[in-house]
Every structure is written in structure tokens, then in C-alpha cells.
Amino acid sequence: MSEFFQFVPDDIHAIIGENFSFPANADSIIKAPPASASVVENLPVITIEEKGKECIICLKEFEVGSKGMQMPCKHTYHTECILHWLSKTNSCPLCREELPTDDQFYEEYRKMKKREAQRKEMLKDLHNSMFT
Known about the structure:
This protein has helices at residues 12-16, 26-29, 37-41, 79-86, 104-130, and strands at 45-47, 67-70, 76-77. The protein is mostly helical. It has a domain at 27-101: Zinc/RING finger domain, C3HC4 (zinc finger) (Herpes Virus-1, 2-Layer Sandwich). InterPro entries: Znf_RING, Znf_RING/FYVE/PHD. It is an enzyme of class 2 (transferase).
């Protein structure tokens, strides 16, 4: 569990309400936890079929016929490289797409962040519809 959330009760919405928004610098304060072990275990292992591809983590070229692990975003890495990476954080090293975690408080933070972004987009659309 993230140190930041160790004292946050289970029902965070009962205390802060549904319309709570995190401060602008929350991403620099809240450290992403490791990816969920069950999600990592189920990442597909693929066979590298073309020459010239490299693992963006170790910067070594894949050998044709070798195995690599593919993220949901379709980026591929050496299995040992991505397993080590995902034991530290939950995102793709290249595009930063996040995988689920086992940290319930971080998952709640992600949901709240997503809702906040959706509200901002809805307000932008509403504003734009008034002037078109």
C-alpha cells in the first residue's frame, strides 16, 4: 500500500465527497505502486519475428526467435526487463499507459483523476457548444 494513503479510511468518499479534486501537484507527490501480480502474470509472451527491434529498457536488440513480453499497449520488452520494471511501477516505460495495481487507495486515486478529467472535458465541450 502506498505510504501516502496508509491512514486513509476505506470509504474515502464518505469523508471527502464525490466532488473532491486532487491538487495540481498530486502526481509528483503520489508514487505509483507496482503493477498487480495477477495482471503481470497474464501478460502475453510473444516470439520476436523481425530483426531490428530493441528493448527500450535495456536498449539491447531482440534476437529473432527470442521471447518477449507484450504490454496491453502492444510495446514489447525482454521478459526479465519488464518484470523488474513492473515490480517497481505500474506503467509502460515508453507510453506510460498504466496497468492495474493491488493498491486499493492508488486505484481510487486513479478513478478520481479520471472522473476529474472527464468533468473538465465535459465543461470544455459545453463551453465550445455555446460558441459554435
